[in-house]
Amino acid sequence: MPPARRTANITAAATAVTTETIKHWLVKSEPESRLANGHDVKFSIDDLRTMPDATSPWDGVRNYQARNHIRNMKIGDKVLFYHSNCKIPGIVGVASVVKEAYPDHTAFDPAHMYYDSKSNQDVPRWYMVDIKFER
Question: Which band of pLDDT confidence, cut at 50, 70 and 90, is reported for residue 112?
Answer without folding.
Answer: confident
